[in-house]
């Protein structure tokens, strides 16, 4: 199926953001593992894998629309040196992704590509849930203090 005007370019921009996020979350997960924050390691690693699944879906959809996925391009990976810094950088990346997805939904509606629009809406819902999770972690740190928060991250949830 041939893509509507601008859709391949839009999907490749989202793919670039996803490929960047995969790496950012992967590094943050490894750092948490190295610091002994097992619960946080598993949660952030899970997010990296979710981003891989999104990238897989995007690549498949670009190919379906007879486009070429651009997997060579990546934005700057921002690595936080502390857990709160990681959360802030991840939050910024998720907010930028949500804006990109929202713009994509508007564009797809305008050009009449409802299949792509639906896929982007589903991705936006997932991003919105992750933004909420990060904001909750930052608020918890604010309320209980960083040391108390990190002490709870040492063991994996049962």
Automatic annotation (TrEMBL):
Cross-referenced InterPro entries, in alphabetical order?
A: Bacterioferritin, Ferritin-like, Ferritin-like_diiron, Ferritin-like_SF, Ferritin_DPS_dom
Can you tell me which residues bind Fe cation 2?
51, 94, 130
Q: Which Pfam families match?
A: Ferritin
Keyword Amino-acid biosynthesis listed? The answer is: no
Q: Name one GO molecular function term.
A: heme binding
The residues listed in the UniProt record as binding Fe cation 3, with positions renumbered to this chain, are 50
Q: Which residues does the record give as heme b binding sites?
A: 52
Keywords, A to Z, come to: Heme, Iron, Iron storage, Metal-binding
**GO term, biological process aspect, one:** intracellular iron ion homeostasis
Q: Which SUPFAM superfamilies match?
A: Ferritin-like (SSF47240)
Catalytic activity reads:
4 Fe(2+) + O2 + 4 H(+) = 4 Fe(3+) + 2 H2O
Occurrences of domain Ferritin-like diiron (ranges): 1-145
Q: What class of enzyme is it?
A: oxidoreductase
Protein family (similarity comment): Belongs to the bacterioferritin family.
Function description: Iron-storage protein, whose ferroxidase center binds Fe(2+), oxidizes it using dioxygen to Fe(3+), and participates in the subsequent Fe(3+) oxide mineral core formation within the central cavity of the BFR protein shell.
State what protein this is by name: Bacterioferritin
């Amino acid at each position: 199926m041939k893509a509507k005007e601008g859709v391949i370019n839009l999907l490749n921009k989202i793919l670039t953001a996803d490929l960047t996020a995969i790496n950012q979350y992967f590094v943050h997960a490894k750092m948490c593992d190295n610091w002994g924050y097992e619960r946080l390691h598993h949660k952030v690693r899970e997010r990296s894998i979710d981003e891989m699944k999104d990238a897989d879906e995007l690549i498949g959809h670009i190919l379906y629309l007879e486009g070429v996925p651009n997997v060579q391009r990546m934005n700057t990976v921002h690595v936080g040196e502390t857990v709160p810094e990681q959360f802030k950088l991840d939050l910024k990346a998720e907010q930028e992704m949500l804006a990109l997805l929202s713009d994509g939904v508007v564009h797809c509606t305008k050009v009449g590509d409802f299949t792509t629009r639906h896929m982007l809406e589903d991705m936006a819902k997932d991003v919105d849930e992750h933004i909420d999770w990060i904001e909750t972690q930052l608020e918890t740190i604010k309320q209980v203090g960083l040391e108390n928060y990190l002490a709870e991250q040492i063991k994996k949830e049962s």
